[in-house]
Structures are given as C-alpha cells and as structure tokens.
Amino acid sequence: MIGRLDHVAIAVTDVESAAATYRDLLGARVSEPKALFEQGVRVVFVELDNTRIELMEPLGDASPIAAFVERKPDGGLHHVCYEVDDIIAARDHLLGAGARILGDGQPLMGAHGKRVLFVHPKDLCGTLVELQEA
Fold it and tell me: Which residue ranges of the chain lie beneath pLDDT 70?
C-alpha cells in the first residue's frame, strides 16, 4: 500500500531560523515559508536528492503542533510521510483493519496540493504517519 518516503517532518518554533540552520550549516536548498491555515502550521521544505525534510511551526496556540513545540522548544521529529496511490482506498483499508485516522477521517489538502491523512501513532509503532496521495 505505501510507496516512497515523501518527507520527514520536524516541528520547530521558527521555520525561518530552522531553514537558515539547514541552509547555512548543511548547505541545503530550502523553499520559501508557506502558511497552511487549514492545518494550523507554517512550513518550509528542505529539498534533498531523494526526499524532503519539512520544517513546521505552529500558527498560534490552536495549532495541532503547538503543545508538541511547547514540550520540545528545541524542536523534534514530528511525523513521517509516505505516498499512497489512492488516499481513500488507503483510509478505508486502515479503518477496516482497526487503525485510527486523526480528525474527521476526510483528507486535507497538503502543502503540495495533494490530499493527506494522518494515522494515529498508537497504531503505527509509536510514530505519527502522514499518508499523501501520489
């Protein structure tokens, strides 16, 4: 069902500062910041040859990652994202197998204009997993 690793997401308090760290310390290519109001985050992508790193900061106290960043002010690994061919088929398969989809179960529009869902970390070895339609 899952395809390639699309990205690894790191929650931070300031995406511009984190992007500068990746750019200046590691020589990475980074995107411009982009606000995803529906998801409550602002993101920057670090472009690698074989995948991406998503740096994300909360957009206010109501952001789903606000508590995470409050607990880890230095930042930390938040989730991994895998591609799937059909997001609805993947969701239905997971639900049928007893996995929990976060939110209302309907896909959201992700940063790259593709539909995404999140699977509860308790159902995937303690890791929050984002599924993104390829």
Answer: none
